[in-house]
């Protein structure tokens, strides 16, 4: 904005407008019902994932689409009858559109026939800027600390024409007496007040600029090709949280497990309960060693948990003879307290001896068929050295397998579960009947696809990330009876050449694999099927424990091939929304869905089971959200007997960083998944004094040093519910017509977490 020339410039802002306080503001999205949008992410340019021009172009194109309630724009669910220019994408739903139409009607009642002809279009356009995808910029509202302007920013030529024809209507558009007195008769003062320094962003030029408008509402990409996503911190101070689960009981609680053997309950309002849901630390085998793969590893709620109160756990333990084993058990929740498990209800389903300390598997999940799937490691050491072909290829052992059992029945031979009659090897006398698939090394996390919210396409698919030996990491789709190749193959290539050339080996190839120059320890993720970020529908997002990077895969429905796309996190331009942060802990432990289908990941800055360095983050698309109200739900209330502890964020938000005084240090680049893709850290504030945001240095996640393929446990999550505050510019009164978590542990940790990588590398070399 040019230098303001009215004496009472401060009065241009509506100081009496009630704004959400910073305490009320959080990450803009709400958890919600499954989205009805069936449009997934497309990586074809220029229509969907076009390189974001405002990051690629030089100059001052550094703003970002944002509404007056601080959230991204959306696609209105119904047509807009008045502000129809924004019916495909903008900041108004039908209710808001009708409200603006009513304002217009009231104003035009005070204007004669000639005024209708001269001023009707101007007044309509100015009022409809609340619906513009760039409304926050136009009203100088990108920073929640600044008051709203009463009029949007207009290009000088357009403003001059408006003032020339309609200056008498200014008092109908704003109730600010100082603007009326100093500017109603002074066109130059008035238009300098509304003029932007960056003419590309003033109305009406902002939407005439094809570089800004053609990619609106699409997944944002930098010129290097990485998708831009944002994060909200929802939990911290966790000790290697290995998973987050929900009970599918409409309570929208989240259950977060730490590697030590503790499970915590997080409530929809973001608070957590002081008393743990389950504490079996005395039984779980876990150590403070960096990257130790043993501990509490898996949990799944019975599909009918609401009725039978059952859930299942997977953990390491040592028996009386000091033999290391894994145990899969069934437990129940107390009838008297839905937030407390009954530790005395444990019923052992299966125990397996572990030949080594590594490769313990750990995933439990229920498929859409109602059966429990268990994912075991190959027994450990290196190269699956057990027997002639290794455990993974030996169907007579349960190690290195995907197992499937029916927990609602019992076998005739006395097993505490039933074998599903259609398991692929039930009639093979040389195979264990529990085996559903084999040839896996150490699948670290698997997930069931909920399917497209509308078409249900993809529903029931099981994705897994299988950690490689020393060359390749892979993503697999689980099929009944499938042989996933290990130890004959690693990724797409041979590992044991003798086994690999066996003509009888009919193995299932990965849908995606990458070598050690990219990452060293895959952490499987989820296919996004939530409501709040409709652009992400169908996008499979996963990470790597060692390189600290997020990656996306998108399926080509015509070829059934999967295309890789890197993800960038924390851009100070794209993520300049309340509650969004620019950095995260780099060691990815696990991914999770909440009950509404929104996506999270857990990571730590120091991968020890005793280190309270873990955090849980929610993944958010800054380009487009669901329409207001679509993702709302009403959690079923649950009586809590334990004390509620409110969530206290630690990470600085992007807006907080931008408001810090500038330093002499050059801005850091945001963390990018490809080294070739630089991150832009400058902001519109440098170019447009109208915004109160100041550029500053942004801390980012450290780049890829970390721990070698160690199955680190996931960090717990503190779910945080966000209250979304509607923010709009009210019409001026018209004249009357014709008249701590951290507190849970006091353990002293090493001062330099950077030592973690070296220790992990040494430990892995010993295992090799």
Automatic annotation (TrEMBL):
<dbReference type="InterPro" id="IPR012938">
    <property type="entry name" value="Glc/Sorbosone_DH"/>
</dbReference>
<protein>
    <submittedName>
        <fullName>HIPL2 protein</fullName>
    </submittedName>
</protein>
<dbReference type="InterPro" id="IPR011041">
    <property type="entry name" value="Quinoprot_gluc/sorb_DH_b-prop"/>
</dbReference>
<dbReference type="InterPro" id="IPR011042">
    <property type="entry name" value="6-blade_b-propeller_TolB-like"/>
</dbReference>
<dbReference type="Pfam" id="PF07995">
    <property type="entry name" value="GSDH"/>
</dbReference>
<feature type="compositionally biased region" description="Basic residues">
    <location>
        <begin position="735"/>
        <end position="750"/>
    </location>
</feature>
<feature type="domain" description="Glucose/Sorbosone dehydrogenase">
    <location>
        <begin position="238"/>
        <end position="565"/>
    </location>
</feature>
<feature type="region of interest" description="Disordered">
    <location>
        <begin position="679"/>
        <end position="768"/>
    </location>
</feature>
